[in-house]
């Protein structure tokens, strides 16, 4: 068996030359596009690395500042949350929704105390008592007033209230 002599026919020579030239052109185009994409990826990675370094520096600065503030305020506890409970809620025929509305209204009145020192709030507890006891809460066309039963000062300010109906 014999291989046909394609090297003598000019049509086949152009075909094979076109294949070789096309392969070389496509290889160079691929290398160019791959290089451009890699360059963009490298640029993006370096920008992200710089941003990460800046963020780590700012995080470290914020942590140092927070530690300094914690050291300064180590002996000062602050109020973080409220717990409101009603001692005589069974004496009144109030739904749990109405009790919830009353509780949220009391908490809204006390929200200005969040973040204050427990010592300062305990010294000014008469102001706290007046704030709660002088407020009138209206539910279902009835007016209610709250009297403070017990108060416990901790990071969570626990208040037990008595409900009284205003006539």
UniProtKB/TrEMBL annotation:
Residues forming coiled coils: 38-72
InterPro entries: YtrI, YtrI_C
A Pfam family assignment: YtrI_sporulation
Statement: the UniProt record of this protein carries the keyword ATP-binding: no
Occurrences of domain Sporulation membrane protein YtrI C-terminal (ranges): 80-164
Segments crossing the lipid bilayer: 15-37
Keywords: Coiled coil, Membrane, Transmembrane, Transmembrane helix
Name of the molecule in the record: Sporulation membrane protein YtrI C-terminal domain-containing protein
UniProt organism field: Bacillus timonensis
